[in-house]
Every structure is written in structure tokens, then in C-alpha cells.
């Protein structure tokens, strides 16, 4: 029994040592499904924005288009990542190994930059709606998108120049990419962008909550003023009706007064 347990432990250890994907069929299916969803969904988004004039003229959709392109690159990088576990010695070459990390870093960095630009666009539209047309123009949106892609590219290509690759190294992240690059370049950038997005969306939520509160108070004030106005109108109508009745009574009495005066004169003559 001890021998069988020892053999089982050795088999498990060999699996983790020589096969990075234990249960590779499950991971293969998951990666294929993720790739199909990423490619299909983002291609539909890109096509809708390109071929729909109504969607194409909206400046906010320029950021959505850029995000769809970056997510499409993420989907395209998955098969390249899978090739390292399917094709023998695929990561033995320097360029093949480094491009594994360059592609995914470039795609993810551009994707998160586009998410930040979308959050900024929504922030300006909700917090400063009167200045949106002046601040967010087609030219400014293109400039932001270009800056985001250039920043992502400059960060992603760093491992091509700064790496720990050598011929006998295993093509894995912790073996090839320097720790200082991850600790002082990639992680700070992602943390900074996520913090900025959190602050922007927090401000958007506060503004939306305050707007909803003002709408409710304005609605209640409007209903109260409407009720007061209706009561004033009813009172005015009642006064007009009373005035009309009084005027009718005066006219009727004036009409009857000459007849009564004539009858009194005849009685006196008799």
C-alpha cells in the first residue's frame, strides 16, 4: 500500500513537472470556448460600429471600438498561448518564448487603458454634461486612443530587451520575465488604472444618486404646487360664480323696480 501511494505521488509530481496542463482536455475545451466567444463577440461589435452610421457618429463608440479591438487581440493570443502546450519545443526559441508574454501584455494593457477612457467619457458626460461637447470631441478621443495604444505597446515590448531568457530555461513567466519588471512596471500601471477607474465610477455613482434625489424632490414639489394651483383655480371659479349670481340678482331687482313704482302711482291716483 505504501508503495502504491508512493507511485501515485510520483505520478502526480511527474504530471505537474512535465505536463503543465494536467487534465489538458478540460483546459483545451475551456480555452477554445473562450477564444470563440472573444472573437465572435468582438467581431460583431466592430462590425456593428463600422457599418452602422448611427453608431459610428457617436464619439463614445470610438472608445468601445478600440476596446473591442484590444479584446479581439486577447482572444487571438489564447491560441498562441495554447501552442506551447500542444506543439513540442514550441517555446525553445527566444522570439517565440518572449512573444508569448509580449502579446498578452500588449492586449491586456490596451484593454485596460480603453476601459479607463470609457470611464472618463462617462464621467465627463454625467458630471459635466454642459462641457461634454467641448471636451470630448472626435479629435480628442482619437488622441486618447492613440496614447493608450502607444503606452501599451511601449510597456509590452520591454521584455524583448529586458529578460532572463537563455537556451535551457523553461518558457514560463516566473522564469523568463524579470521580477522587477512585474513589480515596478506592470503591477503599478494596472493598480493605478484600476484606482482611477474606481474613483471615476464612485463619482459617477454619487452624481447619479444626487440627481435621482433631486428629481424625486422636484417631483414632490411639483405635485404640491399643482395641488395648490388647482385649489386656487377652484376658489377663483367659485368667486366668479358667486359674483355672477349677485350680478344677476341686482339686474333682476332693477328690472322689477319700475313695475312696482308704476303700481304704487296708480294706487295713489285712485
UniProtKB/TrEMBL annotation:
**Membrane topology note:** Multi-pass membrane protein
Gene Ontology terms, MF aspect:
G protein-coupled serotonin receptor activity
Q: Provide the alphabetized UniProt keywords.
A: Cell membrane, Disulfide bond, G-protein coupled receptor, Membrane, Receptor, Transducer, Transmembrane, Transmembrane helix
Start and end of every G-protein coupled receptors family 1 profile domain? Answer: 41-270
- Which Pfam families does the entry link to? 7tm_1
Tell me the GO BP annotations in alphabetical order: adenylate cyclase-activating adrenergic receptor signaling pathway; positive regulation of MAPK cascade
Question: Where in or outside the cell?
Answer: Cell membrane
Q: Which GO terms describe its cellular component?
A: plasma membrane
Show the InterPro entries listed in the entry.
GPCR_Rhodpsn (IPR000276), GPCR_Rhodpsn_7TM (IPR017452)
Q: Locate the transmembrane regions by residue number.
A: 27-51, 63-86, 98-120, 141-161, 181-201
- What protein family does this chain belong to? Belongs to the G-protein coupled receptor 1 family.
Name-wise, this protein is G-protein coupled receptors family 1 profile domain-containing protein
Which species does this protein come from?
Answer: Rhynchophorus ferrugineus (Red palm weevil)
